[in-house]
Amino acid sequence: DIRVTQSPSSLSVSVGDRITITCRASQSISNYLNWYQQKPGRAPELLIYAASTLQSGVPSRFSGSGSGTDFTLTISSLQPEDFATYYCQQSYSSPCIFGQGTKLEIK
Amino acid sequence: EVQLLESGGGLVQPGGSLRLSCAASGFTFSIYAMSWVRQAPGKGLEWVSSISGIPGSAATTEYAASLKGRSTISRDDSKNTLYLQIHSLRVEDTAIYYCARAFAGWNYDYWGQGTLVTVSS
Questions:
Q1: Closest Cα to residue A34, out of A26, A42, A46?
Q2: Which of A2, A78, B84, B120 registers the highest number of CB atoms within 10 A of its CB?
Q3: Do B105 and A91 touch (CB under 8 A)?
């Protein structure tokens, strides 16, 4: 199985901060990497697929980059509605494993 | 509008069985692969099972190791409904079970609101 490891597991941040979350795959997955946002009590929502393609309706302050084994999700200027947990997911091969999640908390 | 609505969760004793359903609307259900993803209380997301969406062909299915041999994913394209049957339920199967639509591979663009399965005596 191809595993993905996210870091950090949590981040204490402020509105307006630029933040970066990383995801590392256990082997090369080309650009088969997705990012999801989940707010408490809600289902996950797709933010970015294929490493860098913004899902329709997602604000442009979100961006993704990377290929092979190393990937990043960047939020350029954190907004109040962005405090949530973020998950990466490899979609290269089954099982399509999710990362452990990164929780953004208010500083 | 795409909608996915899960049902069938509840309290089940260890060793019991249940069948989850996911009613889809707002899109051509038959041409999309679908998956189940679960989330234990306070934990992360765990992929559970997937089924292909190729009308007229036998569906291909895949299962997480934790549920292989104890679960069956299926779909009824005439009813626009996805199912997950789980047998021999364990305490560790306690979770919210989400159904999700897959596009361009296994990218999940729509999710249901989830149904809670609690396995406890």
A1: A46
A2: B84
A3: yes
